[in-house]
């Protein structure tokens, strides 16, 4: 299975693909912006099933538009493009990615798709074109699920665009007990440790960013935690079930750090963590003020790792190789290091990242 956490590499691949496709489109540009307004073909810029190695394709002809993806519209008369919409909702386009013969457009993720007219509308200075094309939802968006379930548990997966969903635990497909567009109930199969949850709908597949069994904190501390607390509880506020915000699931840790670089520590049951399977520790964090914390692993203060964040949720990883390359995990400590008299920190989805 692909390592879907290599987000930067995928971004570079995507940008390189768009540049190649735009160059190809420009090379065919006749420059006749007064020509007939017409669509001759539609291509999806990138197709890449996250469950299949080596299947990545670019510029693939299609007669279906899946919201939330980039497409290349080919034809003529596009040079003076004013707007492009799908089922009545306008989508963003970069004017530098428009020629007379091609439009590269990101179809808005919120484009309506259910019982709609299946229509693309192109408006230019030389006219308006209504073009019939099937409009479908984006690939699934997974917003929450129990990361450390037990085999046999009936769990709820939340998200969006669960249209005719197929749920996989690793390579094991499981029939949903029930499903709506935003929620799936499913029974957990056996042998899920070190595997990933994925959902496929009519438009594509999405793999959850957290591998099964990897959570240290997921709405609450999991069984991987053996103890937790604060360096100076008298001067700190510590709510481990804050329910007014979260990056995953429904709750997070709300830690108000005191003015003297206080710390939050989590003891780990090392008998439950095979650290050889993992490459990093993950955390989602934001602050009332943009700031920083230092991560200290197993009490090794000679190999701290700095993490910077803003006032919105930020996903960060602490590479095991950057904190002394320990072979076992016994404690994770976060020390507030903003340097401006403490901070109100929100922490969620603490866990481990598979190699």
Automatic annotation (TrEMBL):
<protein>
    <submittedName>
        <fullName>IPT/TIG domain-containing protein</fullName>
    </submittedName>
</protein>
<dbReference type="InterPro" id="IPR013783">
    <property type="entry name" value="Ig-like_fold"/>
</dbReference>
<dbReference type="Pfam" id="PF01833">
    <property type="entry name" value="TIG"/>
</dbReference>
<dbReference type="InterPro" id="IPR002909">
    <property type="entry name" value="IPT_dom"/>
</dbReference>
<feature type="signal peptide">
    <location>
        <begin position="1"/>
        <end position="24"/>
    </location>
</feature>
<feature type="domain" description="IPT/TIG">
    <location>
        <begin position="147"/>
        <end position="203"/>
    </location>
</feature>
<dbReference type="InterPro" id="IPR014756">
    <property type="entry name" value="Ig_E-set"/>
</dbReference>
<keyword id="KW-0732">Signal</keyword>
<dbReference type="InterPro" id="IPR008979">
    <property type="entry name" value="Galactose-bd-like_sf"/>
</dbReference>
């Amino acid at each position: 299975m692909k390592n879907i956490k290599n987000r930067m590499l995928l971004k570079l691949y995507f940008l390189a693909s768009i540049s190649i496709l735009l160059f190809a489109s420009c090379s065919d540009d006749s420059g006749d912006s007064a020509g007939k307004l017409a669509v001759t073909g539609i291509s999806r810029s990138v197709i890449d099933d996250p469950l299949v190695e080596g299947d990545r394709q670019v510029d693939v002809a299609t007669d279906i538009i899946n919201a939330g993806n980039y497409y290349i519209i080919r034809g003529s008369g596009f040079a003076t493009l004013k707007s492009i919409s799908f089922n009545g909702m306008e989508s963003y386009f970069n004017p530098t990615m428009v020629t007379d013969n091609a439009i590269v457009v990101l179809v808005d993720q919120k484009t309506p798709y259910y019982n709609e007219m299946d229509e693309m509308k192109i408006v230019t200075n030389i006219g308006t074109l209504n073009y019939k094309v099937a409009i479908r939802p984006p690939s699934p968006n997974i917003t929450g699920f129990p990361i450390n379930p037990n085999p046999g548990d009936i769990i709820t997966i939340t998200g969006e665009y669960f249209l005719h969903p197929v749920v996989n635990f690793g390579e094991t497909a499981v029939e949903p007990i029930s499903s709506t567009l935003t929620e799936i109930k499913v029974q957990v199969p056996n042998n899920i440790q070190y595997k990933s949850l994925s959902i496929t709908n009519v438009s594509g597949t999405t793999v959850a960013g957290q591998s099964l069994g990897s959570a240290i904190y997921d709405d609450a501390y999991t069984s991987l935690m053996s103890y937790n607390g604060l360096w100076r509880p008298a001067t700190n506020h510590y709510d481990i079930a804050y329910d007014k915000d979260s990056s995953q699931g429904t709750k997070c840790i709300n830690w108000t750090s005191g003015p003297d670089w206080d710390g939050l520590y989590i003891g780990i049951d090392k008998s439950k963590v095979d650290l050889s399977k993992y490459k990093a520790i993950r955390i989602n964090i934001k602050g009332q003020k943009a700031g920083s914390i230092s991560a200290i692993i197993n009490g090794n203060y000679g190999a701290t790792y700095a993490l910077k964040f803003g006032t919105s949720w930020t996903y960060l990883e602490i590479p095991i190789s950057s904190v002394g390359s320990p072979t076992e995990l016994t404690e994770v400590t976060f020390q507030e290091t903003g340097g401006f008299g403490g901070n109100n920190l929100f922490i969620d989805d603490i866990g481990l990242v598979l190699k």
